[in-house]
Amino acid sequence: MQIIRDPQSLRAAVKALKDSGKSLAMVPTMGALHAGHVHLVNEAAKHADAVAASIFVNPTQFNDPADLARYPRQEEQDLVMLEAAGCEIAWLPTAGDMYPDGFATTVSVTGISKRWEGEHRLGHFDGVATVVAKLLIACEPDVALFGEKDFQQLTVIRRLVADLGLPVEIVGVPTVRDAVGLALSSRNAHLSPDERERALALPKALRDAAQQIAAGEPVGPALAAAKQALVNAGFLKIDYFALVDASTLVPLSEATVDMRLIAAATIGKTRLIDNVSVISDTVSETGSPPR
Ligand SMILES: Nc1ncnc2c1ncn2[C@@H]1O[C@H](COP(=O)(O)OP(=O)(O)OP(=O)(O)O)[C@@H](O)[C@H]1O
Ligand SMILES: CC(C)(CO)[C@@H](O)C(=O)[O-]
Ligand code: BAL
């Protein structure tokens, strides 16, 4: 595995791959890798001849300086994991190369970025869209993979790539969970054993609400019960727990064909996000309830 830190070496490595006729899949990350990231790399290998992963804790997507300061970092272990997963290139750009003096450009995906995470983490998606555009332009992958755990991020990136006409296919990868259902996330490292136990209420509340809504129960009470379950488990702040259209992320008050339940809530000092799809038993393809 080539470990690359400077833009010239990245350009040379990408050119060498292209010259040898190999296709490239990219997995952008912020490091502190876990089995979810390894799964992305394994999936990436199914889509191309070679896989490049980037590790860059992007400062511009952190709205909270304390969150950035305590973001987990474990570069050595990350590199071992990427090599073991069969990555050909590990790219670890510096902040100076990504944001040189005088940097003045922001990529902003309007509309879809403003809700949910965008509302609670002001400027977050401008930071994500800008860095992802830069990462994709620099690495020139044929395909790039992102996790459904960050469902809104995936939606924003699909819009970004379509709107800018970037020549890359975006692949979403279903969320990897631990044995008891908690979505793997680098920030889970901040959870105490007790908080981790109580955090399970989040995927459970999503599953329960999804089941109720899929079975045709009214949406409002299902969401209210889910929020109450989070409060009972000790979640201090629920930023949102909502049923949305899976393509536009517009909130829904009743079931449709293409739905997603999305949630963000804080336990202790750790903010968790999660989501599940809702497959309705009661809404037909035409959008009307079956008779
Ligand atoms: N459990 C998971 N299953 C599938 N993909 C995941 C999972 N966790 C993270 N990813 C994906 O890995 C990529 C890199 O994510 P990132 O490095 O921010 O890790 P993270 O675990 O999401 O950390 P964070 O604590 O910042 O949310 C993103 O596309 C993200 O959606
Ligand atoms: C896509 C990403 C690598 C951009 O910094 C980050 O938001 C992440 O890891 O999900
Ligand atoms: N995994 C999403 C990136 C972030 O929370 O900043």
Automatic annotation (TrEMBL):
Description of how the protein assembles with itself and partners: Homodimer.
Under Pfam families, the record lists: Pantoate_ligase (PF02569)
Gene3D superfamilies in UniProt: HUPs, Pantoate-beta-alanine ligase, C-terminal domain
Q: Which GO terms describe its molecular function?
A: ligase activity
Q: Which reaction does it catalyse?
A: (R)-pantoate + beta-alanine + ATP = (R)-pantothenate + AMP + diphosphate + H(+)
* Classification of source organism: Bacteria, Pseudomonadati, Pseudomonadota, Alphaproteobacteria, Sphingomonadales
As recorded in Swiss-Prot or TrEMBL, the protein's gene is named: panC
Any remaining note in the record? The reaction proceeds by a bi uni uni bi ping pong mechanism.
Q: What is this enzyme's EC? A: 6.3.2.1
Q: What is this protein called?
A: Pantothenate synthetase
- Residue positions annotated to bind ATP are 30-37, 147-150, 176, 184-187
InterPro entries named in the record: Cyt_trans-like, Pantoate_ligase, Pantoate_ligase_C, Rossmann-like_a/b/a_fold
Q: Which organism encodes this protein?
A: Sphingomonas alba
Q: What are the binding positions for beta-alanine in this chain?
A: 61
PANTHER family, from UniProt? CYTIDYLATE KINASE/PANTOATE-BETA-ALANINE LIGASE, PANTOATE--BETA-ALANINE LIGASE
What does the UniProt keyword field contain? ATP-binding, Cytoplasm, Ligase, Nucleotide-binding, Pantothenate biosynthesis
